[in-house]
Structures are given as C-alpha cells and as structure tokens.
Design goal:
Layout lengths: L4 H25 L2 H57 L5 H82 L4 H14 L3 E5 L2 E2 L4 E2 L2 H9 L6 E2 L6 E4 L6
Helix pairs in contact: 1-3, 2-3
C-alpha cells in the first residue's frame, strides 16, 4: 500500500485521539459511582424485602388484634346482659340465680383472659410497627444516598460525553487527511490490536515496544517514503518520522 508520508503521520494523530476515546470509555465504565450505586441498589432491594415482611407481620397482628378485641366485646356484652338480668330481679329460682352468677363470673374471667391476649398482641404489633418504621427509614436513607451518587454519576457522564464529542469532532477532521484505503487498514488493525498505528522511534516500534533488527531497519530505509510499513512483530502500521533513527 502507498500513502503520502504526511497522511501516514496523520495516523499518529488519529491513534492518539482513539486512545483518548478509549480512556474516556474506560473512565465511563469504571466510575466509582457505578459500583456504589450497584451496592446501594442491592441493599435497598434487600431492605425493601424486609419491609414487606415486617409490614405483612404488622398487618397480620392488626387483624389478630381486631379479632381478639371483637371477642372481648362479645364476652363483655354477654356479661353485661347477664348482669342486667341479675340486677332486674327477673331470676327468682335459686338454682337459676346460682347458674347466672356462675356464668357471669366465668364471663368475667374469660374477658380478663381475652384482654390479656389483646395486650400481648398490641405489644407484638408495637414491636412490628417499630421494626417497619426502622426499616423504612433505613431504606429511604439508602435511597437518598443512592440518588446523590446517581447525580454525581450523571454529572460525570455529561462531562465525559462532552469530552467525547470534542475528541470525535477532532477525529473527523483528521480522517479527512487520510486516504480511504489507509484508513480502512488502520481501522482493521485497531479492531484487532487496539492500536492501529505506532511511531517508529529510535529503531523501535512504540506499539509493541520491540526493537527492530538491523535487517528490518535496513529494509525500511530502502523502502520508498510513501510505502506503508508494517511492524513484523505486532503487524501495526509503522509511521516513520524524524525520530525514527533511520
């Protein structure tokens, strides 16, 4: 392949700009905020699951408390009804009177037992509600911390994307100075090796950092100035400059 020496030298500018794009892409992928956001999101998800479990327990206890309170009310109403019968003097039979008094005493004990159950459930529900409040506060705090990290990530993304646009604009200008066939070869090599062209400096390829043999240097010296040279070691395009040591 043949290409004007000036066009070949422009490959070094292109390679430098492509390296800048690679650095920006790497920076975008490895922002510390990304790992922080992932870690916070995982913690938020775990706590959200715990919140659901705690809220379910609290809801179950609320229903259990309502049922227990309804049982207390039912027993209390029966006891009040029997007490009214007793107080009204409607029951005259000693046997019926004793039976009624016994039932009232039994209902009173039953009411006391049920009220103890209600109190126990209320204590458990209070504990469950406190756990819900604690978990919700923790979840919201983590979500707030994540939102701050997301803002920092977005600001960094915006800065990186702005730099990327500027570099891409410069790259487009450099491409105009490079023939299509040489540009295509460069793109192919860049895809294969990450870097498509490197400077020959002091008899060494700066792409693979290999010092060329005397025979190879003599071959390059004998080549015409517009011949496109490839490194025998890494196969990248070798660009000759005043620093090549030829």
């Amino acid at each position: 392949m043949k290409a004007a020496p000036a066009a070949q030298k422009r490959l070094l500018d292109l390679a430098e700009l492509d390296s800048a794009l690679d650095r920006l892409a790497h920076r975008r992928r490895t922002l510390p905020e990304l790992a922080q956001i992932d870690e916070l999101s995982a913690r938020v998800a775990r706590i959200a699951t715990q919140v659901i479990a705690a809220e379910t327990e609290s809801g179950d206890l609320a229903r259990e408390q309502s049922k227990a309170e309804a049982d207390v009310d039912s027993v209390r109403i029966r006891a009040e009804r029997d007490q009214k019968r007793l107080d009204s003097g409607q029951v005259s039979s000693p046997k019926d009177l004793a039976s009624l008094q016994s039932e009232i005493a039994s209902l009173t004990r039953r009411q006391g037992d049920l009220e103890e159950v209600v109190l126990e459930i209320m204590e458990r529900r209070e504990t469950a509600d406190a756990q819900v409040a604690k978990l919700v506060a923790e979840r919201d705090e983590l979500a707030g911390t994540r939102a701050v990290a997301e803002d920092r990530r977005d600001a960094a993304f915006a800065e990186i994307d702005k730099e990327k646009e500027e570099v891409q604009s410069k790259r487009a200008e450099v491409e105009k100075d490079i023939p299509a066939d040489l540009l295509a070869l460069y793109a192919k090599l860049r895809e294969q090796f990450g870097v498509g062209a490197a400077m020959l400096q002091g008899g060494r390829c700066l792409g693979c950092r290999t010092s060329l043999s005397i025979a190879e240097i003599n071959r390059i010296k004998a080549a015409s100035h517009d011949e496109v040279i490839r490194c025998e070691e890494c196969r990248r395009i070798l660009v000759r400059t005043a620093e090549s040591g030829l």
